[in-house]
Design a protein that fits this description.
13 helices, 0% strand
Length: 301
């Protein structure tokens, strides 16, 4: 069964990378786009919940833990806004690398909160955080003219990492209560509701319903992709330790880095190939270090 959990986590990592791509392509504000994203996420969650209810696998629609999942959605929304701002300032490749510190940070918290603690685990996770941070430094390539923007974007991505890590931890708690489909429903609804409130407050010309144009399509697509990513992560929690699931999620750091470099030409590979390769190696090292945690691997004692 552990193999099934690994498959879910690896597929989820791919979707976590793919959901970032529409954010790079969009031309609308972070608030409007986040609203469209919330709509796509909610529609996908509602459809999935209804399908499983029809086939007799429904979950309770009212539970105190589902309100906790709703809080996680609100927390996630503000992290999402910061992430989009970071992408706009320093690019997808660099923003995603700093943002992926959420993986080892979440693993560190899960280590203590879910009784997966040991001295060896702690050392490996701290080394993993260090390796991911070094990767971010290798990829912090900027000109003197945009140095200030780069610093601010990096700070936003780092803050986003902590917010997203807290969301993973809350999701782990709710999943432990055997709430999967309804958890998605509540989280996505609160994301959409929060995004609607903020967008109406921030955007003078914001409309609740608009003609389905390119920006709306990209936002909804991002929401559906994020639904698939978070759904796969939640399923992996059923079969793997939290440290393992959050570790495999880190694979998305490599995917988004490659998207930024080769799809959006954010970093000149020929000019900076040494730093890019070293950055990728540090990401891989960070993932390996998390896997070396004593007892974290599903086949270890």
């Amino acid at each position: 069964m552990a193999v099934l959990g690994i498959i879910y986590a690896v597929i989820g990592a791919l979707f976590f990378a793919l959901y970032s791509v529409p954010q790079k392509l969009t031309k609308c504000s972070v608030y409007t786009f986040s609203y469209y994203l919330g709509v796509g996420y909610f529609v996908a969650s509602l459809f999935t919940y209804l399908i499983f209810v029809i086939f007799g696998h429904g979950e309770p629609l009212f539970d105190i833990w589902l309100l906790v999942a709703g809080v996680a959605g609100v927390v996630w929304y503000f992290g999402q806004v910061l992430y989009m701002r970071a992408i706009n300032m320093i690019g997808l490749s660099r923003a995603s690398t700093w943002q992926k510190l959420q993986g080892p940070i979440a693993s560190l918290a899960i280590l203590f909160l879910f009784s997966e603690y040991s001295v060896d685990n702690l050392v490996f996770i701290l080394l993993s955080i260090f390796a991911m941070g070094v990767s971010g430094l290798f990829l912090s390539i900027h000109t003197p003219a945009d140095a200030k923007s780069s610093r601010v974007g990096t700070m936003l991505a780092l803050l986003c990492a902590f917010i997203f890590a807290s969301n993973v931890i809350i999701r782990k708690y709710v999943t432990a209560e055997n709430l999967i489909y309804s958890q998605q429903l509540y989280s996505s609804f609160f994301i959409m509701l929060t995004a609607l409130i903020v967008a109406r407050a921030k955007e003078r010309n914001f409309r609740f319903v608009v003609a389905f144009d390119r920006r709306a399509g990209l936002g909804v697509l991002a929401g559906v992709l994020y639904f698939l990513a978070s759904f796969m992560l939640i399923l992996s929690f059923e079969y793997l330790l939290g440290t393992v699931a959050s570790t495999l999620k880190q694979l998305s750091a490599i995917y988004t880095l490659l998207f930024g470099i080769f799809l959006f030409k954010e970093i000149d590979f020929k000019k900076h190939y040494v730093r890019i390769i070293l950055g990728v190696l540090c990401i891989i090292l960070s993932i390996i270090l998390l896997f070396l945690c004593d007892g974290a691997l599903p086949w270890s004692g």
